[in-house]
User: What shape does this take?
Amino acid sequence: MLFTPMNTSSQNIKTAKMKSRSIHLPAGNFILSPFLLYSFLVRKLIFLLLIPLFLFTSCERKEVIDEDRIVISALDFPSYDIARSVVKDRADLVMILPPGASVHSYELTSSDVIKILSSDVFIFTGGESQSYIKELLENSGFSSRIFSLLETSPVKLKEQSEGIINIHAEDEAYDEHVWTSLENEKALVSSFSSLLASLDEENASFYAENAEEYVSEIEKLEEEIKSLVSSSLRKEIVIADRFPLLYFFTEFGLSWYAAYPGCAEETEVNAKTVSLLIDIVRERDIPSVVHMELSSQLLSDAISKETGCSVLTFNSVHTISKEDFEAGETYISLMRRNIETLKEALN
Ligand SMILES: [Zn+2]
Assistant: This one.
């Protein structure tokens, strides 16, 4: 594990705030595609313009914050859920992305940037697609703690091209959806609890207990999925959508045919993709095709119309709807929905 708590015996929130932190993404571990390069440059420009605004407003904020409570900003839902499972109500936790927004297309506002830069802990997925945020943190002299899911994950990163029908040069990158591995999610929750303990010794045992409880809930879910997969008739699924589930499928010994890689920009419903997926469904007598949460479902519906197969939703916990967010749904409750999907798709 890459994250190591620093000086746990002597640190508290106030001293931690004064320490300088930096992130170290593994050099050469990611491929920078032309699309990502363009996106990176545009976002970088926006942030450079926003930094002076933060430097001005952050001075005001420091006068009103409660120094005893840790302020955590989580970029996306996978990060938010990890933080929430550990701190519960003993920190000021905010999710930067609005529910329903996609992390791949969302543009941060000046208010988002201020929230990130004025927090004690910033947690995000990290990786190539969020490298513009790393730039922001470096350029603004962000001195609080940074927790990157990718940097902390013990899971070995895999290329997202495997089993994908529409793969292009710009898609050939490492899959960044590391939370979809339940094994990895357990490690991330534990690591985040160690980070919090190093910042707030008084509540260290509270964080550790919460993390243990969450990890044991994930373990139960893991066992249920393992036994479901082992007793199922088939071990393959057709994904008529993006495929951000590489680590989940690999972990449970499932194989897949998917239309697009996990972070693909292009997900258009073209005749060639529809025809290829229809052939697979017919040849392999596949009963159901699957799409991801908050998908347009155009591709899955087109295949279902032609072949008569059913259409199911798989929740990758990448994004969360406003309704689910307000209802307090968690990584575990959303992943649990996949059990019904798997029962139908694998039998
Ligand atoms: Zn993604």
